[in-house]
Write a structure and sequence with these properties.
4 strands; mainly alpha; 8 helices
Length: 205
């Protein structure tokens, strides 16, 4: 974890953490704003990466294809639409192609990635694709735009939602999200303990 030993000594474990990630809270104010902003920069690298942002398309019900292997970003092929349900229920369900049918479902290149969970777009309010660091930072700390989650709930959401784990283990030669799931959760905890600062905050100028 990226924090001083003193912070570790006064940290509080989160008992609701799952089996995959260790989640340890830090007291509010125990992390400097500068450190919180550094942690946010790393969080943004993950949030804006194609493994994450391609399904955070806001009001659009079209998942995106972007990243080095796609060239110019474009909507998902085959006229795929997620509809109001965000999982394709009104058209063709995302899990029709993305459901995990056996072991190693993500290993074949150029085939639909598979995951042992409900494959779907993020909620409309989580509009990240093509957004700036400040825009996503402002969204993620706003309970009205993040599913009414505090920093603990954000961290445990990452731990318990297996579709999010896929971003770091995409298989098939796909580029994973930066860092690791554990490091991403650690950065969220740091950012939260610093008061969820964003670069545009007046107090940071």
């Amino acid at each position: 974890m990226r924090f001083f030993v003193l912070f570790a000594l006064i940290a509080t474990p989160v008992l609701s953490a799952g089996d995959n990630v260790e989640i340890t809270l830090l007291p509010q104010g125990s992390v400097l704003t500068e450190q919180g902003l550094e942690a946010w920069d790393r969080i943004y690298e993950v949030a804006s990466h194609p493994r994450c942002s391609n399904c955070h398309t806001g009001e659009s019900d079209r998942p995106m294809w972007s990243g080095p292997s796609y060239g110019q970003a474009r909507p998902h092929g085959m006229n795929i639409q997620a509809g109001d349900s965000r999982d394709g229920a009104s058209f063709i369900r995302c899990v029709s192609c993305h459901a995990l049918t056996g072991q190693g479902g993500n290993d074949a290149p150029h085939m639909a990635p598979q995951v042992a969970g409900t494959w779907q777009l993020a909620p409309v309010e989580a509009d990240w694709f093509g957004r700036s660091s400040l825009e996503i930072c402002t969204q993620l700390r706003d309970p009205a735009l993040n599913g009414d989650r505090d920093i603990t709930a954000l961290a445990t959401h990452l731990d318990h939602d297996v579709i999010l784990h896929w971003a770091w283990t995409p298989g098939g030669g796909r580029e994973p999200a930066p860092y690791s799931l554990q490091e991403h959760v650690d950065d969220l905890i740091l950012w939260g303990a610093a008061g969820m600062p964003c670069a545009g905050d007046v107090s940071n100028n």
